[in-house]
Specification:
alpha+beta; 4-stranded antiparallel sheet; about 45% helix
Length: about 170
């Protein structure tokens, strides 16, 4: 996040492997924190320890990003798992005590974990959950299975791919 009024420096830009997919789990019944509620949550949480922050930064730069660049799915997903576990524990008090703001998204992620997936987590404050999958074929099979198992109002699933084009900003 911003430090001293400035955005952090871009450390790396690594293309997302074209064959990989991301299963997204969306829950329209929940909203992530934003604005004043997000500021209040950050103020209520204890400072994240510098040593833990540095350890995560090291794992990201020395293991996760190189794994992404090498398209090493297993190592990349293991690092995402570790990062999400740390952050889910830290943010749990602001999310009703759980690693995910939506309990229903948490149930689906637990189901995916039980199927052996490790690259799982929640986007920012949620409520969207995600699971990295190694191929479109695997992603479509999981998408169909999730849609059949979890037919609840407001709970939806989609299969996405990485966008390697970067942001485009247009001004008038």
């Amino acid at each position: 996040g911003p430090r001293s009024g400035r955005l952090p420096e871009l450390i790396a830009r690594v293309p997302f492997p074209t064959g990989w997919r991301v299963l997204l789990i969306l829950d329209a019944n929940y909203s992530g924190l934003a604005g004043a509620n997000e500021r209040a949550a950050f103020e209520a949480l204890p400072d994240f320890p510098d040593s833990e922050s540095e350890a995560l930064r090291h794992r990201i730069t020395e293991t996760a990003l190189p794994a992404l660049a090498a398209a090493d799915f297993k190592i990349f997903c293991n690092e995402i798992c570790h990062l999400q576990s740390c952050m889910g524990s830290y943010y749990a008090p602001a999310q009703g005590g759980g690693a995910y703001i939506s309990p229903r998204v948490g149930v689906v992620l637990d189901w995916l974990r039980g199927k052996g997936l490790t690259g799982l987590g929640q986007s920012s404050w949620g409520p969207t959950g995600f699971a990295f999958v190694a191929s479109e074929l695997e992603g479509k099979a999981l998408l169909e299975e999730a849609q059949a198992l979890y037919r609840e109002p407001g709970l939806t699933f989609t299969l996405a791919r990485g966008n390697n084009d970067g942001a485009r900003i247009e001004t008038d």
